[in-house]
Amino acid sequence: MNTRRSFLRTVAAAGAASFLPAHSYLRAQGSNSAIRVAGIGVGGRGSGLFKEAYATKAARLVALCDLDPKRVASGKATFEADPAMGGQQITTYTDVRRLIESKEIDAVMIATPNHWHSLAAIWALQAGLDVYVEKPVSHTVWEGRQLVSAAKRHNRIVQGGTQSRSSGGLKAAAAWLKNSPLGKLKYAYGTCYKRRPSIGKVEGVQAIPDGLDHDLWCGPAEVLPLNRQKLHYDWHWIWAYGNGDLGNQGVHQVDIARWFMGEQGLPPSVLSVGGRLGYVDDGETPNTQFISYNYKKAPLYFEVRGLTSGAESKDMDNWRGSQIGVVLQYENGHVLIPNYTSVSAFDGSGKLVHLFGSVKPTTEQSDVKWIEGDKQTHAANFLEAVASRSTKNQSCPAEEGHISAALCHLSGISHRLGQTGSVDKIKDTLKADAVAGEAVGRMLEHLKANLVDVSATPLTLGSHLKVDSQKERFFKNQKADAMLRRKDRKGFEIPDLSA
Questions:
Q1: Of 115, 133, 337, 386, which has the highest C-beta tally within 10 A?
Q2: Prior bond to 136 cis, omega within 30?
Q3: Is this structure's pTM higher than 0.90?
Q4: Contacts of 193 (CB under 8 A, 6+ apart)
Q5: How many other C-beta atoms can be found within 10 angstroms of the C-beta atom of residue 98?
Q6: Structural domains of the chain sorted by starting position, each given as residue range(s) with its CATH number in brackets
Q7: pLDDT for 404-413, tens place per residue?
């Protein structure tokens, strides 16, 4: 039986004995009372997630934690004033270690920066708590695997934050496709065409927000001076803390594509082409990227575009109806998933034959079949699993979240180990793959429309990495293997639970 007392032993082994609780607590199984939830990370995503949870009436938001005292105070005031809270009072914390000691919570919902996701989740699991952790569930491949192991070892519920997994429409479409109504899958193609302007370029070290413990904010990651304008959100574009837009927005579409492909592990190889182009700022991660994941049954391709469709445009590009979405090409048709809640299926002639989810057929489409699917939210799905102590109907357990996050991490490693290459070299590298060659051709046209001269600021041709899918390592590549795991700082070590 997992108790809070076991936290004394397990977390001590991880080097964090200084904040161990002195009590033992486990939520009574079978209780009809609402699940007591604590929210960690009171930014925009976290605030929306926590409200989604208590709106179900299956949970009570009893605590908030954020390192920024202004944010946590604002969150407390906002939530306590919400009539849906029913007058519930909220306890606030600025240190997740203090929060986890509390006897008054049953589960945590984590919406911190990426570099904290796995460690905060594992500490909570060791403390006997169930966990909802936002996407990507990890910052590195190795720590994601430790999260999966921790969920199993402590027999707790972990829900990854790729919420499309709970979409009734997508579930119905995935079930329909299992019978191969459109024939064999030829490839899947994900797009993240989302405007990401420059974050600016500053001179010197910037001031940390008042009252915020920057050392604790960095946690397990490297402590870097604040050499960007904003501490919050723009960490997404810094490798030490974020994973670029592929690991921010794109992980949703990567997850959908992998789900519909039926792939349960890592691909045999990965290759990235891209760069941070169109402006010079303090960001590090690519804003333009093409990735090829060479799965054996059918490849998965992905594109990130942070620039608009042209230098004078405010619009984003669109590929086959997808801006932030997925296209699956089959022998006898294709499927478009343009958002989190709807799916359109087309036959080989391009005729719409089936709709799933939130978009209904028009009166002119009376012959189009439609299945709406259930309307359960991702938070509700998590709370249902917590209450039932069953993962049978859980949408995104730790393993699913880990694999999709790991795909994003693999592409980042390929990019970071790559070298700038000429257009001819890149085209030559991809010449055996018609889809990849066409995609890079479109990328070059996109950059040209944004007045980017790739001869002056060339693309990076990533390292073509061969992956041992079973061991979640690379074949004969020590440099790449070294990037699968971060060197955690003392006191913030993620325990090795894979044995």
A1: 337
A2: yes
A3: yes
A4: 303, 304, 305, 316, 317, 318, 319, 322, 323, 324
A5: 12
A6: 4-165 (3.40.50.720), 168-374+400-479 (3.30.360.10)
A7: 999 999 999 9
